[in-house]
Amino acid sequence: MSGEFKGVLNRMEAKTTYIDFKDKFDIDSQKDWCEIVKNIVAMANSGGGIMLIGIGDDGMPSGSDVTPVLEIDPALLTDRIAAYTGERFSGFKITELNKGGHRIAALLIQNVSVPMVFIKPGTYDIDDVDGGGQQTAFKSGAMYFRHGARSEPGNSSDMTNVVGRELERLHRSWFSGIERAVKTPAGYVTQPTATMNGMARMPSQANYGAAIPDQAYPYIQKEVVHHVNERLSGKKHITAHDTLCVRRIYRIDESKPQFYYKSKFASVQYSEEFVDWLVERYEDDHLFFEKTREQYRAR
Which of 223, 260, 261, 281 has a CA positioned 20 to 30 A from the CA of residue 216? Predict the structure, then answer.
C-alpha cells in the first residue's frame, strides 16, 4: 500500500484537483464528517485523488493526532457515504505516511464511472460562538466535482470529462479485446463494427467476446474458487458465495469486462486476470473477503 504513495509528501506543495490537505479531522464532528464525505465524493466523481489528513494548506505537517483517523473502520466510512448518496462506495484505502517525523493519514480514492449524486443534504450545527444555526456542506440532488482545490457542484465541463474518462476506459477494454482476438486460434472469427461515418466504434462484449470465451475467459465459478484457493496455499479458503459477493459489491459484470463474460446460452466465465485480482486484493487486505461479505449482507 505504501508504494502507492511513495514520494507523494515530498512532492506536495499545494492543493490541486487530485490532492487535498486537511490539517485535522475530528471524528466526533458532524461538520468534519460532512466535509470529508463531500471531498471523497467529489474526488471519486473527478477521476480519483488523494486526501492527506494532518497536512496544512502550506503542505507542512499540522501536528494534529491522526490516530483516530487511521483507526476508522472502512465499513464506517462506506456507511457514511451511503447515507448521503445511496451508493456503498468502497473504492478507497486509508494508510499511514510520515513526513518530518509526523504521522500523516492518507486516503487514496478511486474514480467511479458513474458520478455519485447526493440524495440527502449534508447539514451540521454551527457553534454558538459563530452565531448558531445550521450550515449545509452539500445539497440534495447535486453532483460534486473537484474544481481546482475546491469541491463544488458540477457543470457541463465536468460531465464532458466524465464521458471522456469512460470512453478512454472503454477504449482500453476494446484494444485489450482486440489483442486477445489476434491470438485467437484458427476457426474463430472476430469482426470490427463500422459506423456510418466510417469510424470503427467500440465493439460490445457480444462483438468480440463470443468468439474467444474459452481463450480469454477460461474459468467457470468453481474453477475460479479452486485456483484462488490453490494460489493462496492454505492462507485463505474462499467459497462460491465469496465470488458472488465480490461480483455484486464491485460491479464486476458492469465495470470490469476483462474479468467477466456471459454469453446468451452458457454459464458465466471468468478470466485469469480475475483470479489474479482476487489474490491481489487478499494480499493487500487479509479481511477483503470478510468485508465484502459484510457489505453484501448490508445491502
Answer: 281
